[in-house]
Design a protein that fits this description.
It is built from 13 helices and twelve strands. With 326 residues, the protein is of the alpha+beta class. The strands form two sheets. The chain has a nine-stranded antiparallel β-sheet with strand order 1-10-7-12-6-5-4-3-2. It has a three-stranded antiparallel β-sheet with strand order 9-8-11. The longest helix is centred in the N-terminal third of the chain and has 15 residues.
Length: 326
């Protein structure tokens, strides 16, 4: 593995990196499938976790502190709150598990379970490694199959070699369930204090487009200037994009805004541009047992990516942020 590839912002595919760990977690994966099925059928999440085996897994370490829903977030299903307990002491407050739909598309049943703490999207999570650690332990309590990554010595050594660090923690954990017809727009996961993300496909298959931001800017510029723009774009939209393509810095700013309508349509909703990225070598087929590493060192080189479910079955995946400790 070439660390320079990672340092430049390019994704790294590790085929079969967790495949040997899946058999030992077969019962955990089956239990998780039952949890997701119950949730999709309308069962309340807190009631599910108040029963076995979750009640036993959470044990005395995580005390339930109620639930809440952000009424301003149409994707959120439920957020369960916990405090971490050691003996008689509360050692970490305001931990949470947030369950959300991945999209607004009615036919997409894709879900994610996010584990963190404090005020979502406002907290500087890198400033509180203790609560980060307990939020990660909460994720393991609910999803013990997380050990396919966290207790994987070979994978850990590979991550150390690629990231070029002696020690790291896996924090800000997300468990994904990508369903048929599901997918995501191109985005990045840049967050202060994180070197990147390790994503492991525990079941099912996904297809990824992944490349560093500076390369994405170049590919957008190349596509607009050298190819016929899709006829799904009006003449006015095409003119807007051609004007945008004259300045790479303008493209980068438009990407960061996540609000440039014509650019969003071009890079996410047109087959021609997707095929352009695939032909340029930025497509990754991630199968059961595979891992993909996504670097996020800085704004210019962070790995932008999108993921699509392949096949007719929902697949489960782990997505954990890599926090260097040296």
């Amino acid at each position: 593995m070439n660390p320079d590839h990672w340092n430049q912002g390019y994704a790294v595919l590790l085929p079969r990196a967790v495949v040997q760990h899946l058999a030992s977690h077969a019962s955990d994966l089956a239990q998780t499938e039952a949890l997701v099925t119950a949730l999709l059928e309308g069962d309340e999440l807190d009631a599910i976790l108040d029963a076995l085996p979750y009640q036993q897994r959470l044990g005395a370490q995580f005390a339930p502190m109620g639930s809440m829903v952000n009424e301003g977030d149409d994707q959120e299903i439920d957020t369960l709150l916990y405090d971490a307990i050691q003996g008689e002491d509360t050692v970490a407050e305001d931990l949470w598990m947030k369950v959300s739909w991945l999209s607004f598309y009615d036919a997409d049943a894709s879900l994610r379970f996010r584990f963190s703490f404090g005020v979502d999207l406002e907290e500087d999570v890198a400033a509180d490694p203790v609560r980060q650690r307990y939020a990660a332990e909460l994720a393991t309590a609910v999803f013990p199959e997380s050990a396919a990554i966290t207790n994987n010595l070979a994978l850990s050594q590979t991550i150390r070699d690629i990231v070029q660090c002696q020690r790291f923690e896996l924090v800000e954990r997300i468990v994904y369930f990508n369903g048929p017809d599901g997918g995501a727009y191109l985005h990045h996961d840049l967050e202060r204090g994180h070197a990147g993300v390790v994503y492991a496909q525990l079941s099912g298959e996904t297809y990824w487009l992944a490349l560093p931001k500076f390369q994405l800017v170049q590919e957008i510029q190349s596509f607009i200037t050298q190819q016929a723009l899709p006829d799904t774009l009006t003449s006015e939209a095409q003119a807007t994009l051609r004007d945008l393509s004259r300045d790479a810095e303008q493209i980068a700013t438009a990407l960061d805004s996540f609000a440039h309508t014509e650019l969003i349509h071009l890079i996410n909703e047109t087959e021609a541009f997707v095929q352009h990225l695939i032909q340029a070598g930025y497509g990754f087929h991630v199968r059961t047992g595979d891992v993909i590493l996504l670097p996020q060192a800085d704004q210019n080189s962070c790995c932008w990516h999108t993921v699509f479910c392949l096949g007719e079955e929902m697949g489960q995946a782990l997505s954990f942020a890599i926090r260097r400790q040296d």
